[in-house]
Amino acid sequence: MAKRNRTRADRRRTERTDSTKPQASKGGGAGSGSGVSWSMVGWGAAGIGLVVLLGAVFFTAGEPLPSDPVTASLARANAGTEITVYRGRAHTVYHSSAPLPTAEAPRADGQATLVWFSATWCTVCERMEPFAHETASVFTDRVSFVEKSVDHDRSAASRYGVRGTPTFILIDAAGRELSRFHAQLDAASFAGAIESVIAQAGAG
User: Fold this and answer.
1) Which pLDDT score, from 0 to 100, does residue 63 have?
2) 181: how many CB neighbours lie within 10 A of its CB?
3) Please, what is the average pLDDT of the chain?
4) 59-88 b/e with 16+ CB inside 10 Å = b?
5) What 3-state class would DSSP assign to 144?
6) Is the confidence at residue 75, as pLDDT, over 60?
7) Listing from the earlier edge strand, what are the strands of the sheet with 112-118?
């Protein structure tokens, strides 16, 4: 009998304890009475995170590459002319400002010119930049080396039928095409390609 009385007392204490606990609303958990659910908070945080991420990507992608004074000096010496630096997100072009030679306005020294047609959006051009101007400087006693932006000298690109970058075209003192080649991904290959077109054209 005493045992049954204790059981009833225990049950009453449990019921009183349960009655004091907060009751979850039917709206979906704690805090639903305020009109904000955990799922809404989660989506809001995700949205803020996405905006921050996109902003970081935008500003990183939008920042143009810096120019290099050493490369600019080499480009100027190789071309024998003033240059204009066009900074892009994929490549920095050290663009020769002087027009290419023509039959009406040939080079006075009779020297051939190797023209590098490039673009600020050309990723392969950027892979070549660390060695292109430096390697070409070895050959300046035989050919001048100029870089031309296809977007800033469209007439030159059209004149030689340039369809992609990088394109390297060797022209004579009157602007006639002698030979051409395309991307070379290391200094040794680039030097070999220059040597080859000079030999083929008899320009050396």
Assistant:
1) 77
2) 18
3) 81
4) eeeeeeeeebeebeebbbbbbbeebeebeb
5) strand
6) yes
7) 83-87, 92-96, 143-149, 112-118, 167-171, 177-181
Token pair for residue 191?
Answer: 């030097």
In three-state secondary structure terms, 95 is strand
d(CA 158, CA 44): 52
Predicted confidence (pLDDT) at residue 5 exceeds the cutoff of 90:
no
Give the residue carrying structure tokens 């006693």: 141
Local structure of 11: helix, strand or coil:
helix
Identify the structural domains of the chain with CATH numbers, from first to last: 69-201 (3.40.30.10)
Check if the beta carbon of residue 91 is closer than 8 Å to that of residue 116: no
Task: Pull the structure tokens for residue 6.
Answer: 């204790």
Q: pLDDT tens digits for 143-176?
A: 999 999 999 999 999 999 999 999 999 999 999 9
Tell me which amino acid residue 111 is: Q
Answer yes or no: are the C-beta atoms of 157 and 100 closer than 8 Å.
Answer: no
Calculate the alpha carbon distances from 62 to 56, 57, 81, 90, 92 in Å.
10, 8, 30, 10, 14
Which amino acid does the sequence have at 29? G
